[in-house]
Fold:
Amino acid sequence: MGRIMEEKTSAYFNEGLESVGERLRRCTVQVSDGRRGHGSGVIWRADGWIITNAHVARGGRRTRVQLADGREFEAEIVAKDRERDLAALLVDARDLPAAEIGASGALRVGELVLAIGSPFGIRGAVSTGVLHAIGPVAQAGEQSWLQADLQLAPGNSGGALADAEGRVIGINTMIAMGLGLAIPSHDVEQFLRRVLRRKAAA
Structure:
């Protein structure tokens, strides 16, 4: 009986992760300027706002994004915060599959986390690990980072770090000391609010 219960629990857990992964794929985009490879981005709002890393949005004022359903859009690079390595993109589209945003301030070390992006151009790849620590990293300035023990590769930059429920809790940015570093969703929300205020005032 114990073995059967273990198998059922494992199957239920795997099915849950598959469902979470699929939901995350829908809100993840591939970002490309056509010359320097690919990065990732997260549909932060259904009215066309996409968040990625500033080092992914390397073009001048425009870049291209491809959604999980194959649609492609030219995106305006509205704002960058190079110090925090964030960029806000805007596409002319509505009713996009936006991410559910989680509260990065409520996270606990040891939680299961998932990263999704386009490592080496492979769209929608998912890796799993645990939240290793939260706080500054010596090689990455004084800002606070979500430090995750999971596998990242070129192309994951700008993609989502999510909790086990599929809520986006950060934006994956770099690898340091073998850990994936992500910008907490709280910082991303503050950045986007500043962008929206400036755009409304313009």
